[in-house]
Amino acid sequence: MMSAKIHPELSAYEAAVEMLHQSANYVYQSALAWHLQPQLAIDGVDGALSWPTTHYQSQQLAARYAHHCILPATCVRIANKAAWTSLLQTSLLPAVQKTLGVTSIRVGAVYSHLCIDAHGSSASLTPRPNIAYAFGTLLITLPASEKGGTMTVARGSHSTTQCPSPLTAQVLATFSDATIMSAPITSRRRVVLVYALVAVDGDVVKVPPTRTAALAALTAIAERPPLRLQRIGVRFKTCNRCRIASFSDLGPQDATLVDALLATGRFDVALVQLKAPALHYGEKRSYIITKAMLHPASSMPSDIAVTGHSVDAVVGAQWHGVICCAFVFWPSSFRTSFVGLDLALRLAHGAIATTEGTGRLGLSVRDLVRGTVATFARTTPPSRARSVAHLVVQSRDVDLVDRYLRDVMPVTTTLGDMATTVHTCLHAYGWTTIYPALEAFLERWLTAREASGVSHLVTSLAGIFTGVTALCPPLRQPFVGEFVKMCWQHLLKTTAPPMQHWILVDAYLMDKVPHLVRGNWLDVRLPPALVGMVDGFLYGRFFVSALARKQVSASKQLQQLPFGLVQAIASHPTLPQQRYLDVLATSINELVRTSVDVGREKPQAVSSSDVGNIMDAMHRLGCINAALLTACRVISSPERVVAGLLLFLQLPAPPLLPSAQSAIADFVESAAPTFHYTDHTQHDDVLSSLVDVIEVLTLTAPREVLSFVTAWCAALPETLDATRSSLYPVVAMLYSRFQGKDLDLVVHLAEPCLAALLQGGALTPVPALNDFVLTAIDVDADHCDECAAFALEELVKAYPLQLLLDQVDGSDDSASDSDDERSANFFIWKRAQPGGATIDDLLEYLHRSAQRQGDIARVAVLDEVLALHAAAMDVDAPAPKRPRHET
Asked: Which residues contact 53 (CB under 8 A, 6 or more apart)?
């Protein structure tokens, strides 16, 4: 059970219930004691009227006002006018305002007329129509002993009565849209002061809704109810007993709501007992029905079990305690949720097949199908999605299809199932009928899924993709071109589709749609060329070509357009290409001009894979040249461009033209000197990029490779550090990439690398440094914990077969002391002695020792490379052996 704050759908119920409560506040009634009543004097009657009237006054009234008369203000005088006006302003009108719910404005009472009636006229009880800002009626019925004359006030489906009193004046106030009717008067006369209730400042009066309007609101909810809030609870306003009460025990407000729900004929109502499961932290309180009693007026079959099901929400759930008893209502179509989805589906399919609804949960076929769809919407099990979609289409219910697409059809379904359902609905009902619902579904899909699904659907419906590449058959309906335009406009307004689909839809709308027979609204009035111009104007805000995106920079165009164009041409070889090549050429030229602007910051966003895609696309379009490579450098870095070129050259593609190979070779050779790094952590990346250059040259200019690597190697400093940090890593990376292929290039660098290491003394032994070696030093195990641990460890090392040292890391929690922060692992350093080696000497010794071990490993790899190369050169030679070097 959730609150309205979490489920906005509940607000519709809240509003309808509030309308019902407000509709009861349409009439005010009270009585005035004799000393508070106005003292009237009227023309033709001697003295002030007394109550009851004297015999003489009755004769005068009968003589002058025989039937019924309306007396204006000029014929009526109030003897106690000051007192009466004060009572009216300070007592009656505030009470009227409070009851009618118009407390936000200043309310006044304007005298209209005095009604003297001997027959029971209803018309005479209405104020004159020329009173400004009038919104209601105030009647002061003076005491009378007439027979009959009961007044009835009706508003909407509410009504109330007021009977005359011979002792007190009766006050009645209501709104102008209420109807005041009078029963016939059989004897004597009725005297009524008629006032108009007015907004003093001319403010608009918010008149409360009628009961009829509240019932209409409840009926509208039942017609299109919230799908996931099906069972709504209402806490008793006047019952705090935790037991099932009878409906006769309900308080006035609860009884009014129950009567209204049943009056619509669209809801079932039950009194229930509830159980609230234990709450865990962060959970919302929920309720389970443990006992239920249906209202006798509900038509729901009694064999449908209500108990055991949950209450989805509570109207007016500001109550913070646990609700033990309540009444619950639900739209009658939601009876299906009590029997489960599987049974509901069987019943619904059977009802459609036989066009009979009787005997199936007491529902019509329409309500049964709608309830089944709502039951599916509660949990949306994927295994039932196809069956529900088929049921919706077979129902031939346009409103249900609209609701299904807008709110029910799951966006988690497969792309194929989604397209099949959409096509079936469009085929069955026509796109002009259900397009708004389809647009709402596409909005939900785009929020949860990628745009490629929608663009693929649109291209399939347009017939751009056919056969196995299409998600569904093309849509064959009048004005299908307009349908595609509207779908595509909505997609572009929301997100950017894949470039392949964008290009294909562009071509479809520019080259095919204007010539379709009955494909456009304006076909019968305009030639194809003008249809395209009008479309450009109508859809100019969102419906834009992939080639004319004003907000897209040249770099973005170059990133996105080539790869999409290659995909589009692959699926549609006859696609016109020149228009796209012109755009690409413009983008490239703009980026080349940008590259000469030294002060301009160059973006570094395009990855090497993007560069590879660009190269692949431009190669297939025959456009690889120096200008393109320069443009790629502008939108990326030299290292990424070289890596992208290598990725491209490794793809299966048509052979490169010699001019393209030459352009690529020249570019990578010129790019290599620009590789740089800002800190030592990027040094390996720079060397990797250099190896990329070498590999690209082997694929585009193999004759220039040796000269390139020779020049690079010669430019290195002749030091062991340069050999270790630059030359050897390049050899190792080349060996890793070219192993099993051609080792000539690797050997070309391996030989000078090995020579540099050996001749530079890389394997020369490091002189021993014994000043820091522990010899003949006794350890007193009783000295401290550190000495005890050291002595114990040395003892175990001396007797490895007899002793085993356990828990040396102090991980035994049971024996540890939380206050002891000392570790059980210790390092013992010998202190530097005067006149001996220093700590710096020790660190240098350790560094050189580690460096020598690294050099031994490097030499081993280089020996392996040379031995493998030698064996490959002489196939009859025995297996290569590593040479021995003096160490």
From this structure: 61
